[in-house]
Design a protein that fits this description.
Layout lengths: L3 H6 L3 H20 L2 E7 L10 E6 L11 H12 L5 E4 L16 H8 L8 E3 L3 H5 L12 H9 L2 E3 L3 E7 L2 E7 L23 H5 L8 E4 L13 E6 L8 E2 L3 E2 L13 E5 L2 E5 L17 E7 L8 E2 L3
Parallel strand pairs: 1-14, 2-3, 3-4, 4-5, 7-8, 8-9, 9-13
Antiparallel strand pairs: 1-15, 2-14, 6-7, 10-11, 12-13
Helix pairs in contact: 3-4, 4-6
Length: about 325
């Protein structure tokens, strides 16, 4: 037997701790955990008496063995169990890294997503990975044609610089969705800091024909500083909540253009609200640390902020 002091001084401690952390970061947290992250808010311009429950799914990044079609279906069933009024999907359905053993193509992804159910419908925007390539990073882009078709066949309406009026209990609101902010008209992804994209915020909001509140879907959160207070809530993904977050230091990768505030969670700037989802899949490497995969549940008009919880996996 070796006591703790000898173990720590033997030089074995750090390698073993590192190996255990790597095993958790690659094997456990991204693949075996699923969190329901809950938010409750009542924006200033939100109508009294309109209580709306939203389930938000973002950054699936389909591809075996980490995000199989069967796992996507299980995630959708967990979202259905929340009994949402509407389901909103924030883009990046295609794989995000090279550590994929087998592609999950757009049709398979659409079939898995087809189990989603909500009385007010399911709506999506596309992300940069949906435009930049096919199911794998090495698959040529088809201009997001296949994923757009698969989502439509699954009963999910894709909103690209468009807005749609909805109503619950006789009270009207709008769902709006932006085109991707990083992809140009030819499906090419621009470098950070270059103003290129398919998003048209002004044109999208011009399609709203009355003063009912607006929920805006946008894949990347960098649009938020330009969003007017006319929009009750902006929903974004893309950042994966930092994906790998070090204790005390926070996310390894943040958006240097807007700072670490625009990486994860609920932000309020005056009367404007932003929620950034931590998403479900991964990009660059199939690893997560202190940011488990999550479905976001949002209660609009509710009084009490509910807590996050893990669902059985």
């Amino acid at each position: 037997m070796i006591d703790r002091r000898r173990f720590l001084s033997s030089g074995l401690a750090l390698p073993l701790i590192g190996a255990a952390t790597a095993a958790y970061t690659i094997g456990v947290e991204p693949n075996l955990l699923l969190q329901v992250k809950r938010y409750s808010l009542a924006p200033t311009n939100w109508p009294a008496g309109l209580n709306l429950r939203l389930a938000v799914i973002s950054d699936i990044h389909a591809g075996e063995p980490f995000m199989s079609a069967a796992r996507i279906r299980r995630i959708c069933e967990a979202a259905n169990a929340l009994n949402p009024d509407a389901v909103l999907l924030l883009g990046d359905f295609n794989a995000g890294h090279f550590f994929v053993t087998r592609a999950v193509d757009e049709q398979q992804t659409g079939e898995a997503l087809s189990v989603l159910r909500a009385p007010l419908g399911c709506y999506a925007v596309l992300g940069n990975h949906d435009w930049a390539h096919g199911p794998l990073l090495t698959t040529p882009s088809d201009g997001a044609v296949a994923i757009r078709r698969a989502l439509g066949q699954a009963g999910i309406m894709v909103l690209e610089n468009d807005a749609l009026p909805l109503a619950k209990d006789g009270r009207k609101f709008w769902i709006a969705g932006l085109g991707d902010q990083l992809i140009d008209a030819w499906g090419r992804e621009g470098p950070r800091g270059v103003e290129r994209g398919q998003d048209d915020l002004d044109g999208t909001l011009a399609k709203v024909t009355d003063m009912a509140p607006i929920i805006l879907m946008a894949h990347e959160p960098m649009i938020f500083p330009s969003v007017p207070k006319r929009v009750a809530l902006t929903l974004c993904g893309h950042t994966h909540g930092g994906q790998v977050n070090l204790p005390l230091l926070g996310p390894v990768v943040g958006d240097i253009r807007f700072g670490f505030d625009y990486v994860y969670g609920h932000l309020q700037r005056g009367d404007r609200h932003l929620i950034i989802s931590g998403g479900l899949g991964e990009s660059i490497v199939p690893a997560r640390l202190l940011r488990p995969p999550e479905i976001v549940e949002i209660m609009l008009g509710a009084a009490q902020p509910p807590l996050a919880q893990f669902v059985e996996w």
